[in-house]
Write a structure and sequence with these properties.
Layout (H helix, E strand, L loop, with lengths): L12 H15 L41 H7 L5 H7 L13 H10 L12 H18 L24 E10 L9 E7 L12 E5 L4 H10 L7 E3 L5 E3 H7 L8 H10 L3 H11 L13 H8 L6 H6 L7 E4 L10 E7 L2 E4 L2 E4 L1 H9 L5 E7 L14 E4 L6 H12 L6 E7 L2 H4 L3 H10 L4 E6 L9 H7 L1 H9 L3 E6 L4 H16 L4 H13 L3 E5 L1
Parallel strand pairs: 11-12, 11-14, 12-13, 14-15
Antiparallel strand pairs: 1-2, 1-10, 2-7, 3-6, 3-10, 4-5, 8-9
Helix pairs in contact: 3-4, 6-7, 6-10, 8-9, 16-18, 18-19
Length: about 525
């Protein structure tokens, strides 16, 4: 058997021997055709192992976000590796990974993209399935040509994910009332002189800076002082402190970090614990939600070489936010609706990297690295007279505020119905005065709210939908487009179920017929979702 761990790897002879045996058993490695899993110069599928790579099938029945993961994988059974990889993703073409679902699958299959955790809506379920498919493909050792992934065109010439624009912060306004359990901000960024253009439904990619307190703690834990010079790609040299603040994900630990800590471990119990973590097992004192700092506190017993440490970290990823403003009304700025993420984990106050960066760490007029991510199907109807039903609880209201601004500015005649929900009407009714002004002007035809913490029985937007089932069906029969924005894991699924139930009951259809009806709405671009 050809060893999986190269002799140049940062391991002792005994550690390398154990890892070779472990991964050979895990992968069911044959005696030939295997390359090092940990060789950073190899493609994802290795250099001697090339999985079958061809165009993703034109017929992609799994490209339906309403289907479960298992249903999508069943539809992709027997298809090319790209088809199966694509079926594992959330099918939203949200762009949060920097690709479309199809191009992300192509990039993984070709070896251009090695990070399997980029699909944010799919989360750990998608990442786990991508890893499983990868291991199965390596074990199969099949043979074919590589595919050059399809590039996604940038909205504006010159500024994109690889060359973000430095947009000064114009406004940081609190949207929740005093006493709210939430902290939501209106963030406005200046794009004057950039040439950047955007449309309603697009998202803004934001490259955040990490929390300096967390950066300092990590520097201390690895036994460094922060001034050590780190080499990035293309020979760029910067201090460790700057590298951790701007360029690396210092929350989500990689398998490479586990391997580095294992190679440096001297305590026998720690070595055993790290072996179990490598296998994906739960270890006392640390769980699957641990971050880099928890792992360092748990297992880092000796100073780490700063360069070796950062080489194990993932690159920091941009966060995508639905744009909350109309380019007709605000051509020189982009507005976002950002919910601050804060919670406590094992005694540590954890923060959303991008949300608290925008809400707490950027000062007025300081620049933020941004780019526009074009939407793929989530946009205003081409016909300005087309009625719209919009479901956007919490920060999900973001694109619908932009939709209403645009329709007001362009004097569109289509009727508009908004379902909005949050915890409390007095403190969490985002953009209340603006929405009521839209009502007064006749632009917002109907506004239904669901404030879940104000009654003994929690009421959500899907409950309000069921209360108005007959009228929703009438709007759909009159050609209305149905939009949803917000949480993909719970809200969007519940809204989807409510919509199918309304279609079934009001349209006198069987559940399967109702599902087909909703599927056809999506194909006709009348059922659009921007969920995350």
């Amino acid at each position: 058997m050809i060893p999986l761990i190269p002799e140049s790897g940062p391991f002792s002879k005994d550690q390398r021997s154990w890892l070779n045996g472990f991964f050979a058993g895990l992968l069911g490695v044959p005696s030939t055709g295997i390359v090092s899993v940990f060789n950073p110069s190899t493609t994802l599928f290795g250099q001697s192992v090339s999985p079958t790579v061809g165009e993703v099938e034109e017929d992609q029945p799994w490209h339906d976000s309403s289907l479960s993961l298992q249903e999508r994988l069943q539809l992709a059974k027997g298809k090319s590796i790209q088809g199966r990889l694509m079926a594992s993703m959330a099918q939203l073409d949200c762009g949060s990974c920097g690709y479309l679902c199809k191009t992300y699958a192509e990039s993984i299959a070709s070896g251009k993209e090695k990070d399997l955790s980029l699909c944010q809506p799919g989360g750990k379920e998608t990442a786990s399935k991508l890893k499983e498919l990868f291991l199965a493909e390596v074990n199969g050792v099949t043979n074919f040509q590589k595919l050059q992934p399809t590039a996604i065109p940038a909205t504006s010439v010159g500024f994109d994910k690889n060359n973000p624009f430095l947009a000064p912060l114009l406004e940081n306004q609190h949207l929740n009332g005093q006493g709210s359990a939430k902290d939501t901000r209106l963030i406005a960024l200046d794009i004057r002189g950039s040439g950047i253009q955007y449309k309603c439904g697009d998202s803004l990619g934001v490259f955040p800076q990490n929390c300096f307190e967390l950066v300092h703690q990590i520097i201390y834990l690895i036994g460094a002082h922060g001034g050590e010079i780190i080499t990035l790609g293309e020979g760029k040299n910067i201090p460790l402190r700057e590298a951790l603040a701007l360029h690396f994900d210092i929350e989500s630990p990689s398998d490479d970090l586990l391997n580095l800590l294992f190679s440096c471990a001297e305590d026998g119990s720690k070595i055993n614990d790290l072996q179990r973590l490598v296998k994906g097992e739960v270890v006392a004192g640390i769980d699957e939600n641990h971050g880099v700092i928890e792992l360092l506190r748990f297992a880092c017993t000796a100073p780490l070489n700063p360069q070796n440490f950062v080489d194990t970290l993932k690159k920091i990823r941009p966060r995508l936010y639905s744009i909350s403003s109309s380019p007709v009304m605000f051509p020189d700025q982009i507005q976002l609706t950002v919910g601050m993420v804060r919670y406590e984990y094992h005694g540590r106050k954890r923060k959303g990297v991008a949300s608290t960066f925008l809400g707490e760490r950027v000062r007025i007029h300081e620049p933020v690295r941004v780019f526009v991510q074009p939407s793929h199907g989530f946009a205003l109807p081409e016909n300005p007279d087309c009625p719209m039903i919009m479901v956007g609880p919490g920060t999900g209201i973001a694109p619908f505020r932009a939709f209403l601004q645009e329709r007001q500015a362009t004097k569109s005649k289509g009727e508009n119905w908004l379902f909005f929900g949050d915890q409390h009407g007095k403190t969490d009714f985002l953009y209340e005065q603006e929405l009521k002004e839209f009502q007064h002007l006749g632009m917002l035809t109907k506004l239904d709210t669901a404030f879940s913490r104000e009654t003994e029985k929690k009421i959500y937007v899907q409950d309000r939908m069921m209360e108005h089932a007959k009228e929703i069906w009438e709007w759909l029969q009159n050609g209305a487009c149905f939009y949803v924005c917000g949480d993909a894991i719970r809200m969007a699924k519940d809204v989807d179920l409510a919509l199918k139930r309304i279609v079934s009951e009001q349209g006198a259809m069987s559940p399967s017929e109702a599902s087909k009806f909703v599927e056809n709405l999506a194909k006709d671009k009348r059922y659009c979702r921007d969920v995350y």
